[in-house]
């Protein structure tokens, strides 16, 4: 494709705008699947070697040079496909008291940027996500996060989520549970 077929941001990242659009649609569909509790379809968007990680964030002064996130500290999620599948199966059980009545989710994904990697058919994707959670009559919680994903095209041509790093903006969660996928 000539440079005329690329947007400015896509050209800078070495990614064609049709691919950017395809990845945006992939992320928007993923959000809708989660909102509609279509968890088995959502799991089907994952690569077999997926790593889904949401570390705890620590508030630190600028003078403190320690990392804000670390593999050695706590994480809300540090899941592979087997554990994501277990979480989905648990959420579907009638005994899942934290989801009865079910939480009503609203996911909004924005500020999507796609960058080429050195590996063909793999892209680093940056995005912002807003998750509004509503329970019962008056419980409401807002989660905001920056995400860094690795999206790859599998042998069938489908896009799959291979890695997700979720950086919450909140350092302390006020939620009674963390039954959410971001």
UniProtKB/TrEMBL annotation:
Signal peptide coordinates: none
Keyword Oxidoreductase among record annotations: yes
Pfam families: Ring_hydroxyl_B
Gene3D superfamilies: 3.10.450.50
UniProt EC number: 1.14.12.19
MF-aspect GO terms: 3-phenylpropionate dioxygenase activity
Keywords of the record: Dioxygenase, Oxidoreductase
Membrane-spanning parts: none
InterPro entries membership: NTF2-like_dom_sf, Rng_hydr_dOase-bsu
SUPFAM superfamilies: NTF2-like
PANTHER family associated with the record: 3-PHENYLPROPIONATE_CINNAMIC ACID DIOXYGENASE SUBUNIT BETA (PTHR41534:SF2), BLR3401 PROTEIN (PTHR41534)
Family in the record: Belongs to the bacterial ring-hydroxylating dioxygenase beta subunit family.
The name this protein goes by in its record: 3-phenylpropionate/cinnamic acid dioxygenase subunit beta
Organism: Pelagerythrobacter marinus
